[in-house]
Amino acid sequence: MKASPQWVVYRCYDANDWLLYVGCTCDLPRRMQQHSSQSLWFPHVARTEASQPYRDSRRAFDAEAATILAEAPAFNKVHNLTRVLSQMCEDEFFLEDARPLVGISVQMLRREIGEGRLAARYVEGRWVTTRAALTDWIAAAPTERKSA
Fold this sequence. Notes:
Mean pLDDT: 80
Radius of gyration: 17 Å
Number of domains: 2
Shape: globular
Number of strands: 6
């Protein structure tokens, strides 16, 4: 019987301890090899740290998203709200419209609204939030944004 893969969340830092990238994998050596041939930031990596293994990929991917939200690595694109917000022109927007840019499920954002961690209002059958509300949410302690 083949053992199930061990999923980890990893962080890549440069020589000055700047967080370059956060990822999730069940084969860290193979993933680092992929980054070495595909990622422009990889030559700057001085060290990589991996989390304790997660029981399954869903938990690992949730932890990866939460880590990216909390720590805003320089080169992550998906889940990196800090980068997305800096590029948005509108001060107010529907959550569903931002979802493809942010890479976070609307369900997760709705849960954050329901638990009072993300300010939003319900307009014409859709949730509306502001850039300022998302910025405040990002600045909140990461432990306040635990994944389910």
